[in-house]
Fold each of these.
Amino acid sequence: MVFQYLNNRPLDEARSQYIALLQAQGLAPRAQTIPVPAAAGRMTARAVYAHICAPHYPACAMDGIAVRAADTFGASDTTPVSLSPEQYTLVDTGDPLPDGRDAVIMVEEVVFTQGEAVIRQAAAPWQHVRQIGEDICAGEMLLPGHTPISPAAIGAMLAAGVLEVEVLAKPVVGIIPTGDEVVPPAADPKPGDVMEFNSAIFSAMLEQWGASPRVYPIVPDREDAIRAALEGALEECDMVLVNAGSSAGREDYAAAVIGQVGEVFCHGLAIQPGKPAILGRRGAKPILGVPGYPVSGIIVMEQLLRPLVDLCLGRGAGQPELAQAVLSRRVVSSLKYREFVRVRLGQVGGRLVAAPLARGSGVVSSFMKADGILEIPQGSEGLEVGTQVQVRLLRPARELERTLVAIGSHDPLLDELADLLHQADPDAFMSSSHVGSMGGLMAIRRRETHMAGCHLLNEADGTYNTAILEKQFPQGGVYQVECVGRTQGLMVAPGNPLGITGFGDIARPGIRYVNRQKGSGTRILADYLCRKEGVDPAKVYGYDREEFTHTAVAAQIAGGTADAGMGILSAARIYGLDFLPVCVEQYDLIIPDYAWDTPMVRRVLDILAGPEFRARLEQLGGYTLDRPGRVRRVY
Amino acid sequence: MVFQYLNNRPLDEARSQYIALLQAQGLAPRAQTIPVPAAAGRMTARAVYAHICAPHYPACAMDGIAVRAADTFGASDTTPVSLSPEQYTLVDTGDPLPDGRDAVIMVEEVVFTQGEAVIRQAAAPWQHVRQIGEDICAGEMLLPGHTPISPAAIGAMLAAGVLEVEVLAKPVVGIIPTGDEVVPPAADPKPGDVMEFNSAIFSAMLEQWGASPRVYPIVPDREDAIRAALEGALEECDMVLVNAGSSAGREDYAAAVIGQVGEVFCHGLAIQPGKPAILGRRGAKPILGVPGYPVSGIIVMEQLLRPLVDLCLGRGAGQPELAQAVLSRRVVSSLKYREFVRVRLGQVGGRLVAAPLARGSGVVSSFMKADGILEIPQGSEGLEVGTQVQVRLLRPARELERTLVAIGSHDPLLDELADLLHQADPDAFMSSSHVGSMGGLMAIRRRETHMAGCHLLNEADGTYNTAILEKQFPQGGVYQVECVGRTQGLMVAPGNPLGITGFGDIARPGIRYVNRQKGSGTRILADYLCRKEGVDPAKVYGYDREEFTHTAVAAQIAGGTADAGMGILSAARIYGLDFLPVCVEQYDLIIPDYAWDTPMVRRVLDILAGPEFRARLEQLGGYTLDRPGRVRRVY
């Protein structure tokens, strides 16, 4: 096995040198001429001037009569003036002003008697006449170069006789997916099939930026095949991406191939995710080696390809929308890299709170959920909880203000609640993070959430939530709102092939358990059951294998990498697992004072009590409802 | 002539009742199923759930060897562990974890000796393994309903085995242009031809909003023809616009026809522009009668059609981006109407300044130039200069911060300057308003502009600008920056058919003069020439006919509605007019202290002194350059 070492070039330096190199080679915007009606949203290639005036003739601005103003002088209520048919012309709005006339009188102000037009007020010269060029004068600059064309600008150009316009051509960006294991997206892929959805993500990003993506067929991991594909794409495109194979493993050919058809300027950046990026070129055409993990790929696209697209479309870098936020969890970072952390954002109690999302490079859902990006500079070991940070917004700030934040215990019903909330009010959004019941209560104490799902058993008396709320909120300040009863139990493979009879069996040799994370209500329940049933957690294979949601536990069992795990009935049902019920627990929503009187919380309480929510829960299964939305207790 | 009276319904009331009526009739979003890769930017029709987990198998997260963690326990630097070929499997990133293995060791941490893999650190169970569902779990809600689909969401759906998605269908909006005088856009239209560019504007707006426009051929002003077109469009579209004929003139058939094929809910709104709008329907299909003037049409589209499109696309009304600004000119408004005033905005001296643009309904260029909309409520007679107003932004606030404001005397060179500035820095913009030299100096005194073009003659000594600056700025605070010398003269028709020999001739009977507005340097020059040449302005036909730019004066002469007017050589050249030179005057840029040290002003001074600016002026003609950009004097 050959092992190559990558560079660790700082991003800013590598990027600016790379762009300068490409510009020196001739990378620049290209112009094309298109019909004006098709030009909305495109960028002008150069300044656009009016060909003709608008209006291009003196036009009547009212329905009425065109006259010579001098003929009307002296007209008043007491001295009306009668105009003979030779002295006036009936006109409609938009008609050309007839020769010899220099004013228009509105039809409402004229009385017609026996062919004469009687008026009681003199007309001022040029009244109700749209002068030539009132709107636009021939020769006038309508739009400067490198300016986006708005709908109104389309109208202005057409009005000014400009029927075609030179715009900047959309750069054509070729995307070459590579990899032996890579297959087109499928509803039912085989183990080991890596679905090629990066090109769909990249294409959508490119379209959003105004470029024109061209996706090539998947190329196997063979140097000659990749080279042939790259050479072909370079003939047809302005820029080319080779997706994956950009790292330094035994089947990573991208760097070698780029070096053969052109030149590698830099391989390896001091960024995380995205470090194995390749910055290459042939002549002025950029060739990027983009890492295979989608999150790495997205970062490389944004940081390296977007500036090149902007350059070709005559756009400045612009200023990203930034906001100050408070970090809700500690983030550890490597000194070696500048790190891009996806965060969820919520406006809670007057502050913007940033909650870091899962950071794995493969976690494409983290980008789907992200409201912003937090950058941790190279040379920093990370940031402590509570730090004031600057985040780049991915959603409009005004949307964040209308987003209900739910941090706490996971239950699929929260997603249904989010859907129903947005359905009820399209301007309202809900974002939920799963940190377990205890994590949710901590988030309330730190004023980082509007509500928290919670199901914490008090072992002493078998009640839920009450005891812990009293302890956690000795000064009060929270409402305990009834939500659902839900059935917890042991999930096992369909047909229960290992004959598991109850929780006590999880320590049996040959049984692979999968657990929930510490602090989650379900973990606390499992710990309690261990004590009750005399199970030694240290003897349970997989007791320290932690998943963060009920469905993730179910997924391991369904996938055959675990045999048993605690979870709720609805999760077992999704995966068709067998289920050994253990208890019905109480799942409440804990809502702090500071969020209680907000319209969003009010609406959620209404939804909880409504028939649609009940129907959704019946669909999920395993829930009982008593009086959802009722305040159980105020602390 | 039949004269119909229109309603004057308040907009908010009419709109909400109209929408409620349409919803009661069944107007609602429609769903359609499309392939996920084509769904970027579309709205989900309902919640989308994951079909499969991502990853869908336990995957190796590193290139290296897959092992059973238990086989590695005890490995350390001092007690390395050798794994036999049966105990490890070579794996690449993305490979499925082989059966019986539960951990991956990175290739960098393995030494291979005679087929054995030697490791010096124990592997933790599940290390470097991407668990099933690490990213997404089957059954998990990926996106709520009525949510825009981002590029990352496309990736997440495909990763989760979701290959097709139900999205909200783009509402199809038919546009029927009507009018006998209406012709398709042409480079050289005849007098009286009204070019039909509204459908291009409306189409571009609809595309921007996510709807699907369908433009029908122009229909003549005949009731039966319009009815046939409307009936046809209603078969094919979700909504239909009848453009023009919505007023109450003798050829306005829209209301009658809408009443015949369906129902008119309201004809006439208390808004300006846009009052003759018709709100009609057939069943749940909206039919709008849209006024013919483009500005009225744009307002009606935004205020009435956009909410209907939003409704069909499951979008909330959102919050418009608002900003506080200081009004730079008095705006008079009618008590009867809620008025939408287009404004230019500039960030000057720490305040946002709103300058009202031309308000004619036909002035489509005002929408092209507008940075914001100022609403004046019904029942208000207008707003005084200096009033704090709230404006709805049409451009991002951050762009406004980087916009150089030039208010003052008009010269086409300012547009060239704007083009060169934006070319030099794509993040810099320039917006210029033409209010004459005196208006520019007033704008500086009110801290409303970063610079002002100025050419004010001091009759006493024939110098320019110096005397008036001393008078206007007794405390100083402005820089007088040299720009150009330019040739002023009398513009006359090509070949000078009336044999005009000089300024003194403008009072001759049969000569129609066209003037510039009071306060402009050119008007002051004309007034001076009148005195000098003994011309009585009251005897000059058209001396009170005021245009706001050199090109507008030239356009009147070229169009044959005037015979002579003062202006600069470059304007005469654009229109091919004859030109009788009168003087070479000095055109300076006056720049206040408070703008002097800004990067944008610095850049403009650089551009003034550069060869590109000189080349542009040579193109325009009639300019002399001495040392443009030099500070003549500081006051």
Amino acid sequence: MNIALIGYGYWGPNLLRNFSSVNGCTAHTLCDARPERLTLAQKIYPTLNVTTNIDDVIANKNIDAVVIATPVFSHYPIAKKALLAGKHVLIEKPMTSSVKEAEELIEIADKHNRVLMVDHTFLYTSAVEKMKSLIEAGDIGNLKYLDSTRINLGLFQPDVNVLWDLAPHDVSICDYLIADKPVSVQATGISHTNNGIENIAYLTLNYQSNFIAHFNCSWTSPVKLRQMLVGGDKKMISYNDMEASEKIKIYETGYEIKSEEDKTKILVDYRTGNIFIPKLETNEALKGMANDFVQALINNTKPRCDAQLGLRVVKVLEASQESIKNNGKEVKIK
Amino acid sequence: MNIALIGYGYWGPNLLRNFSSVNGCTAHTLCDARPERLTLAQKIYPTLNVTTNIDDVIANKNIDAVVIATPVFSHYPIAKKALLAGKHVLIEKPMTSSVKEAEELIEIADKHNRVLMVDHTFLYTSAVEKMKSLIEAGDIGNLKYLDSTRINLGLFQPDVNVLWDLAPHDVSICDYLIADKPVSVQATGISHTNNGIENIAYLTLNYQSNFIAHFNCSWTSPVKLRQMLVGGDKKMISYNDMEASEKIKIYETGYEIKSEEDKTKILVDYRTGNIFIPKLETNEALKGMANDFVQALINNTKPRCDAQLGLRVVKVLEASQESIKNNGKEVKIK
Amino acid sequence: MNIALIGYGYWGPNLLRNFSSVNGCTAHTLCDARPERLTLAQKIYPTLNVTTNIDDVIANKNIDAVVIATPVFSHYPIAKKALLAGKHVLIEKPMTSSVKEAEELIEIADKHNRVLMVDHTFLYTSAVEKMKSLIEAGDIGNLKYLDSTRINLGLFQPDVNVLWDLAPHDVSICDYLIADKPVSVQATGISHTNNGIENIAYLTLNYQSNFIAHFNCSWTSPVKLRQMLVGGDKKMISYNDMEASEKIKIYETGYEIKSEEDKTKILVDYRTGNIFIPKLETNEALKGMANDFVQALINNTKPRCDAQLGLRVVKVLEASQESIKNNGKEVKIK
Amino acid sequence: MNIALIGYGYWGPNLLRNFSSVNGCTAHTLCDARPERLTLAQKIYPTLNVTTNIDDVIANKNIDAVVIATPVFSHYPIAKKALLAGKHVLIEKPMTSSVKEAEELIEIADKHNRVLMVDHTFLYTSAVEKMKSLIEAGDIGNLKYLDSTRINLGLFQPDVNVLWDLAPHDVSICDYLIADKPVSVQATGISHTNNGIENIAYLTLNYQSNFIAHFNCSWTSPVKLRQMLVGGDKKMISYNDMEASEKIKIYETGYEIKSEEDKTKILVDYRTGNIFIPKLETNEALKGMANDFVQALINNTKPRCDAQLGLRVVKVLEASQESIKNNGKEVKIK
């Protein structure tokens, strides 16, 4: 499989490095409008084809798949062109700027029977994989809540707010861990700039089941926090991505609602117990993602973060933006 | 000044101990419906008068002031009786179950010229005092946000939700630190019990100025967190109440919005710098609160957490409850 | 059993409180040369007998046992008097100022068939009990080393050096955990005062087996550390007494020496794995110690920290002092 | 200046990368006995000359300086050859296996007027530079002690013990920070292998002044610790190299010995105060070291870690080994 990468900015070099080392594919062509970026890449990969023109990529029959790592607003037009030209497509997160765009891409991919996948790298980290396997094994019990904080002093984005920038990580993790899907969102936030783009935002996801998810995102925190709590009725997990090795802690902590006939006298059983810190593998997550894409191309397998997952994340983001603009009112997810 | 304490449950012993040692007052009488609680107290304070009947306290002309540490729903009727009987009143937080009750108590107190105060103990901790003095000195600059997390595996309350239980601490701290007052709230949450009382809740406060406050409260976290960030445009403060001594960290971190003529190209200046951990005094906060009340009685000074502050906290709580019940819609604070 | 406490300084109040609540004994008499200390105690314990004269305690036939919490140099003469008068004796750590004194006390206690015990409170903490049970169950494997750091900004003692002040805790824990006993010590240190009493000291214990123990003690550290590592060939334990609840961490970390025929090419197998943080009970250690003493009086059981353990600790301290004075030379323990 | 690197093992690639980017020199030739290592290097540096024969390097008149990153035992013969051939020499730490070797190299370098330097990289970290500047500015006061812990689950070295492997870092930092030089050492340790090479060791350095340094080194710890305390009579520094950004903490903690006429009654004044965490630059230390060497070649400046510093470190290591073999007895440093 010959793969072309479009966009060689912040994340592009990581993608190129990984697609260069994954079995079953060749990093065939790199496309970026800036010639100096192409020169830089060729120093490391002397045999790489380069071009400043996307259409060269689209027209090249030898290219089987395209990886799109450009700014969000351009995901849709590039992916559409590539799909229509019969190429498989991997898009950086978030998938598109709107639900409409994402749905159209899925429709095209389905019609042409092409793989369409979104790079939600965090789903391939050993920490998230460990949480997933614990939940699937039933160790955590019925899930009750997910609470996420992802804040730091971050680069203010000129075109998208802090939720579009930071929340895709945690919303995709939530989507992956929880079988149930959100029915509505509420979001609040503030913009400290004139352009009205929120640099601090808070997002709540509601579910038909008895589950709630909350996301705290900020570009204006003096400390860098990446903390997530996932609570079940058997055990609870703390996931701290800033820890070097002890990222996941599993708490034998829980509560059980006993007799509730009389609503004025609920009886709750509390449990606290041992804590377990599993050893995590040190695989590079991005390599796992790249490999998942290549396997989908070769073996027609369903990738972990397929276009449907990417779409669900965009649905949450679009709804959250509508909620913020409407003072936090509940917005249904279609 | 002779002081009577009504209610000798979880917090009562702390109040009694502190009012026994504060200058200018005498812990005169203890009232609790449970005789065994009275016996317990008399072992430590042999000269203390005790009664199971609140009316004994109200009727006693020797008693100048009453401290009310009973369940929330009874704050209003007891305080009203005491004020009407000409006594000064200190109420445990939250002041009352409703804005209406709180406003009526304030009216009565004003009419009878009595001191009415609410015990928001945290305002007397050296950590909060340090934050206050830094903000007042202008060290932090214009305040931009406050973000608070107060979660742990906590006792489910049968009558009030987690916001009424935990948020008064942080909302009162916010009220004390920020000169501006909130104009509206949005709140979301979930109840994992049949009685519909939220055990997890999220609260956003909006202000006319460019400031936002957010509160994350839970009775169902495996880890106990008490973290607050206060961001200004000069510096930012992290307040971790779980730290033994290094509770406050001041970050020379900030950002400045430069040219904003062209809204599509904002220019932000980021600063990160040294961190400063001030030494905090080890005074007992509750003693400071007790002393503040006694000084108000003796010298007619305005206490730090006067009834107006108590009322503002109840306004936030009442509005937040209305918002949760209305799926997070914005509720104005009158 | 009627118990008299001699010495009501820093630790005395804790002893009195615990012996007042342990079953099977009565806190009968308190003795301290300072009348104001006696008055203080009587406020809390109105029925307690008090005296400023030790001989009153010794002569009182109603007193079965004496608890000695006076400065170290006076342990021996008081304990001797009490034992000769037929009383059981509990002594604060360290047992005596010299091996000779400790041995004589043991001889007298044996001759008069009295219980003689030393208060090494740490052996009754749930953290140390957990380590002991793990080691005894074979979970840790053959023990290879113990490494302890106990440093803080501490009160310079006028009569004993930092090892006599701080090391008894860790040396007694080591003695309790490790079946083998040390054969020699080396110690180094420094005195930053004119009186030549070391405020920083380092102690190594050597064993006939392949085990080593090291103790780092200081009164002049800006941070308070209480850290211990215990390494076995199966697992390793980290014990951090400054942690509120997660004091003990068990690491599935180890190494195994494979082929060693050729000494120039050793082959070591390394393992790192999961980490386990056991929930610890929150019992008060001192109450367990007091109870152990009372049980020894009543049921003639062997207490956990009997006089032999107390003696072994003093042997280490005396040898370490000799080693420091001789520039770190190895001193055999008899 | 043309530079040749001899040895392309663990550290070699870092040296080559840095000497390739430092101004004023060219990475001219790489020498390693393993051809596959040379091939690897040429992939990244296509114009690099390579050879498996050291004598090629020595004989090449175009090479001005040699960087030696081979196993310790070979430092001396290679450096000697290079110096005698008129080349400047940079040696990886520790400088040599013996004091005799180091002294002979210094003699040759002096005679031939060549630069001889040792790569103690840590001296160029921003953390150590910050400590140095604080000490030189007098902020810390008179230095009283340095206490270092460098432990982890590390590779057992087949030829040198854990002190030769780990202590050079901390001994060189100590040498750099403290103007005074040690007069004697005591060391203890244990070997858990048959070959008698210590995997745990403890080292004390004694000084004529009232200063003491202690080093705790282990290859068999379940946790990785790199902690150092430096105590002065004004302030104290904690240096934790495992922290991502808050490596250095400066404590306004101290003690002052007041009246000491009567040695039985010392009077100590304790101070605890604020803590300050300076922002550290994020320069790569190794680049600073490489640059220091090149500056010494070009401008004849004295490098920070010149051969005399390298020699002093070897003196400490050799003496410590003698002390361990003699059961911890004090060994003078010549």
